[in-house]
Design goal:
By secondary structure, this protein is an alpha+beta fold. The chain folds into three domains: 5-129, Electron Transport, Fmn-binding Protein, Chain A (Pnp Oxidase, Chain A); 153-252 and 263-331, Beta-Lactamase (2-Layer Sandwich), CATH 3.30.450; 352-455, Orthogonal Bundle (Arc Repressor Mutant, subunit A). The chain has ten helices and 20 strands. The strands form four sheets. It has a seven-stranded antiparallel β-sheet with strand order 2-1-5-6-7-4-3. A six-stranded antiparallel β-sheet has the order 10-9-8-13-12-11, sandwiched between helices. A hairpin with a 2-residue loop joins strand 3 and strand 4. Helix 3 runs parallel beside helix 7 and helix 8 crosses helix 10. The longest helix is centred in the last third of the chain and has 31 residues, at 304-334. The chain starts with 17 loop residues before the first strand and ends with a strand. Mean pLDDT is 82; it is low at 140-150, 263-269, 336-341 and 343-347.
Length: 456
C-alpha cells in the first residue's frame, strides 16, 4: 500500500538533491540527480525536464524509473518506483514549475540559458523506506508543549487578522503585518515593496536587515520579487540547493566563454546567504498593490502549507490597503481646505544643502543620494514651500492636485510614497522630518537652515 505522499512534504523541497535511475530500451542503466521532484498529489509527482537528456530519452523508451528522496531533518531515505504518464508543456502544473525555474534563472542573469521544457508527470507505483540507511540515534527527548497549547493555523489567522483590521493607516498596517510575521511565524526577515515609476518596485518597509533597506528598487520581471510582481503569483524557493544550482550553472557558462551575453546577477533582496525565499503578491481586483518578500537562513523555513495560508493573509493585507486608500479619499472630499502653519524656529548652524536634479527627479543631501522619482518631487515641493513661504503643514489632497508631481489620476500610491519619503529622511537626513498629523495631513519639521539648488 502506498502511503500519502503529502506526509513526506519536506522530501520534495529539494534541500537534498534527489537521485533518479532509468533504463534504456536495451537495459542500459542511467543514474543521475534531478532538478525538481514536484509533489502533485498523493499518487503523482512531476519531474522537471530542462534538457532533452538521457533521463528523458529513457523514459520515452521505458516508462519506469526509481527515485530516491531524503528527509532533510531526519535524513531518512525513501525509494519511489514511478511510471511515466505524460509530458505537460502548458497548464497550471507546468506554469508553477516553470516559474520556479525562471525565478532562479532571472536571479542569476540566466534567463534563456535554462528553462523548463516540460513537466513530466509520473504515477507512484511503489513507496518504501530504505531500512538501515542511517544508524539508530539516541531515544527522542520528550518535548513540553507551551502553556496554552500549540499555535494552530486558525489561531495564527485570528492573530494576524486582528492586527490587520486594527490598522488605521498604511504605516500602521505595514508595521502590524511585519510584526505579526515575526511574532506568529518567527519570520525575522521580511520586506514590503510597492509599485513606483515605470514597472519598478520600491521597498517601503522591512524587518531584520539592520539598515532597513527602504528605497531599494527591483524591476518587474527580474529576480524572485520582480517575477512575482509581473506574474502576480506566489513563488517559493526552498533550499540552498536551488540557489547554489543557479550560481553553479552561471559559473559553468562563464567558464566556457559564454558569459558575455549574460545579464548581471541580481543581488538577493536582503540576506546574502539566504537558504529559502518566499514572495507573494498583494492583489486587489487584479491590481497589483505590492509584494511581500520573506527570507530565511533556514532552508526549511517555508513549508507547503505556508503558501496557501500566507496567500490568505496577503489577500487581507491587500484589501486593507484598498480600504485605507478609499477612506483617505473620502476624507479629502469632506475637507478641501489645505492647512497652513508657522515657520518653526531653527538652529543657527551651517545650512543643510540639498540639490534637485531635474533630469531624473533625484534629491541629494550634500553629496549623498536621498530619494528620487515622485517621492523626490514631493520632497522638493515641500522644501520649496518651507523655504519660500514658511509653510510647515500640508495635505495629501494638495499633493494630488499638483500636476507637477505627475501622480496618476486613480490609485496613485500616494500614501506609500509618503511612507517611503518619511523613512528615507529618517535614515539619510534626520534633520528633516515629515510627521503625520491626522488622516490626510502631515507637517514638515526642520532642524537646520536649508540651502536649495536645482540642476538640470
Amino acid at each position: 500500500m502506498i502511503p500519502r505522499l503529502s506526509r513526506y512534504a519536506r522530501c520534495f523541497q529539494g534541500v537534498i538533491p534527489s537521485g533518479i535511475a532509468t533504463c534504456a530500451r536495451d537495459g542500459t542503466p542511467n543514474v543521475t540527480y534531478i532538478s525538481q521532484v514536484y509533489f502533485v498529489d498523493d499518487r503523482h509527482v512531476a519531474l522537471s525536464c530542462q534538457f532533452f537528456n538521457k533521463t528523458r530519452k529513457n523514459l520515452e523508451e521505458n516508462p519506469h524509473a526509481q527515485i530516491e528522496l531524503w528527509d532533510p531533518l531526519t535524513f531518512e531515505c525513501f525509494r519511489l518506483r514511478v511510471r511515466f504518464l505524460r509530458a505537460e508543456t502548458s497548464g497550471p502544473l507546468f506554469e508553477a514549475m516553470a516559474l520556479r525555474i525562471e525565478t532562479i534563472a532571472s536571479q542569476f542573469g540566466l534567463t534563456g540559458v535554462f528553462k523548463l521544457i516540460s513537466a513530466d508527470v509520473c504515477e507512484v507505483t511503489q513507496f518504501e523506506e530504505v531500512e538501515d540507511f542511517i544508524a539508530a540515534g539516541p531515544p527522542a527527548v520528550a518535548t513540553i508543549e507551551p502553556e496554552g497549547g500549540p499555535l494552530t493555523e486558525i489561531r495564527a489567522l485570528q492573530t494576524l487578522s486582528a492586527r490587520i483590521s486594527r490598522a488605521s493607516s498604511l504605516d500602521e498596517l505595514l508595521t502590524a503585518t511585519l510584526d505579526a510575521f515575526q511574532d506568529v511565524f518567527g519570520f525575522g526577515h521580511a520586506m514590503v515593496l510597492v509599485p513606483e515609476g515605470e514597472r519598478r518596485l520600491v521597498t517601503i518597509a522591512s524587518r531584520g536587515y539592520g539598515e532597513s533597506g527602504v528605497g531599494a528598487e527591483v524591476a518587474f520581471g527580474e529576480g524572485l520579487i520582480g517575477l512575482v510582481a509581473a506574474e502576480q503569483r506566489l513563488v517559493r524557493v526552498g533550499g540552498a540547493r536551488d540557489l547554489t544550482y543557479g550560481r553553479a550553472v552561471r559559473a559553468s557558462v562563464v567558464a566556457s566563454g559564454g558569459g558575455g551575453g549574460l545579464r548581471p546577477e541580481i543581488p538577493l533582496p536582503g540576506l546574502h546567504d539566504a537558504a529559502a525565499q518566499l514572495a507573494l503578491p498583494l492583489v486587489a481586483q487584479d491590481r497589483l498593490l505590492g509584494v511581500i518578500a520573506l527570507e530565511s537562513r533556514n532552508a526549511l523555513a517555508f513549508d507547503e502549507w505556508h503558501e496557501a495560508f500566507l496567500q490568505v493573509i496577503a489577500t487581507q493585507v491587500a484589501m486593507a490597503i484598498d480600504r485605507l486608500v478609499d477612506e483617505e479619499l473620502d476624507d479629502e472630499e469632506e475637507d478641501l481646505e489645505a492647512a497652513t502653519g508657522e515657520l518653526p524656529a531653527v538652529a543657527a548652524p551651517a545650512p543643510l544643502k540639498l540639490t534637485f536634479y531635474k533630469s531624473d527627479d533625484c534629491v541629494f543631501v550634500g553629496d549623498e543620494y536621498l530619494v528620487r522619482n515622485i517621492p523626490g518631487k514631493i520632497l522638493w515641493k515641500l522644501l520649496r514651500a518651507y523655504v519660500g513661504e514658511g509653510r510647515t503643514s500640508f495635505t495629501n489632497r494638495e499633493l494630488r492636485l499638483d500636476p507637477w508631481l505627475g501622480l496618476p489620476e486613480l490609485r496613485d500610491n500616494l500614501e506609500s510614497r509618503l511612507i517611503l519619503l518619511r523613512r528615507r529622511l529618517e535614515e539619510k537626513c534626520p534633520q528633516i522630518r515629515t510627521v503625520p498629523a491626522g488622516r490626510g495631513r502631515f507637517t514638515l519639521e526642520v532642524d537646520r537652515p536649508l540651502e536649495l539648488a536645482e540642476r538640470d
